[in-house]
Give the backbone structure.
Amino acid sequence: MSLFPVFQTAGSGLHANRIWMDAVADNIANVNTIRPYDQAAFQTRWVQVQSVRGDSNDPVGVGGGVQVVAARFGSPEGVVHYDPTNPLANKDGLVRAPDVDLGDQMTQLIQAQRSYQLNLTVIDRARDSYLQAINIAAR
Amino acid sequence: MGAINGLLGLVTSVQPAASTPATAGAGALTSGGAIGGVGATPGTTGAAANQGFGDVVVKALDGLQSVQNNADGLAVKAATGDLNDVHNYTIAASEASLATDFTVAMRDRAVEAFQEIMRMQV
């Protein structure tokens, strides 16, 4: 158990939220990615996280933060568009666009950003608290 | 009088340990074993307490060194562009700075206690 365990815990939160923002960025970057009708569309990326078991030496038993365990993928069907001018269109003029909901992605982005800031705040406050504890009765 | 002797023994045996972390701030830390000499030469009266404080100091120095090594490694990674997460380095640097502050504070308190005893009229 480290001397200042809160940094690892909050750091894991920063990491998870950074990955989340990466996933949202990937989704938004590919919002216009068109695939041929006979191929799978770009699949929306979702990040799956789970809580981390705390240090086994820790008598209190608080957890050790959060970790990203997997990326999950949305519908491969996508949205079928009629776009006969597209070079990828089949003989019926159909292509697959990704089923990415931009509104949902922007909401997720805000959530991820705020969660990231929350963890930064935890680190900031914890650091202040530790410093004050170190300076107890200092001359 | 016995109590004062015990206290003096404790403080004199603690004093070398307290002076060791002074090098910590300069980053010239060797392994925690370097101050094993403190535990190896216990004061006659404060032996038990000396072991306790020595252990604390050794543990703190070990922790400080590993934290600083971690921060150093991440700083190199940041410089070479191998750093995946910006916050990994800043957190490690912050932790290293806190650990250094903590060790220095511990040194200061020990030295302060020693000087307080030395000012005593006998």
Observations:
- The two ends of chain B are 10 Å apart (CA to CA).
- Chain B has four helices and no strands.
- The first helix of chain B runs from residue 2 to 19.
